[in-house]
Structure formats: structure tokens, C-alpha cells
From TrEMBL:
It is an enzyme of class 3 (hydrolase). Its EC number is 3.6.5.2. It holds the Pfam family Ras. Belongs to the small GTPase superfamily. Ras family. The gene is Rergl_1. It catalyses: GTP + H2O = GDP + phosphate + H(+). The keyword Cell inner membrane does not apply. This is small monomeric GTPase. One of its GO terms (molecular function) is G protein activity. It comes from Promerops cafer. InterPro entries: P-loop_NTPase, Ras-related_GTPase, Small_GTPase. The keyword Ribosomal protein does not apply. Keywords: GTP-binding, Hydrolase, Nucleotide-binding.
Amino acid sequence: AALTVRFLTRRFIGEYGDMAEFIYSHNLTVDGREILLHIWDVPNSQQAEDGSSEEKRIQWADSFVLVYSICDRASFNILPLKIQFIKAAKEGQSQEKVPIVIVGNKRDLHHQRVVSSEEGRLLALSLDCGFYEVSAAE
């Protein structure tokens, strides 16, 4: 949620209570073209709830940004399963590669890091995904 809010508003909000999922709309100019983005922001706790809801989200989306905390090993460890699920659902219908990017967040908290940058890069490489490390706070 912090990363989505930072992208949309350029502001950082450090504290969130119990988060619900939200769909945000945002206009963006890329290479001189106006693009309307719809961002379905789903907290990880809700992603695990219901397989049919997750399937609906996957069918709805054209691309995926999966965010983990570099300070939380569990948030990193669930990524391979999530990516396999997405690819099976999306690529099973067509031969097109689904765009997936893995993002390690909280780069500013390097002193609390438990997932190395190299682990993130290797995971992304092994699963044919993009990879970035960022800090929503910075």
C-alpha cells in the first residue's frame, strides 16, 4: 500500500491499519502517449484468503508487480508460488508472456535486511521476471 500511495501521490505514509484492497485509477504519460492505469492493490493477507478471488484478480490484470519487504523473509518466500500461480492462469490461455516485476521494498532499512539484493535478483532471473529494490519512504 505504501508503494502504491507513493507512486500515485508522491507522498509517503508510514503507518497503515488493517488494509483492505483498493482499485486506483491513474493517468500517466509514457513516450508521449496518455495511459490510464488501474491498480488493484491487494494486501498479502487478503491474497491468501480465497483462491477464486485471487483467480479473478489475475484474470483482471494485464501485468503484475509483486512487492516483498527486504526485512521479512516470509513475504519473499511466498513469491515463487504466487508467480507460478499467475503464470499458470495467464500463460495457460495464451502463448504471450505475462509481465511480472518483483520489487523489494524498504531498501532504506538496510540494517534490518534479511533478504539480500542478490537473492531477489536470482529469484527474478530464475522466474523470468523483472526486479527492482526501492524504498517507498525515500
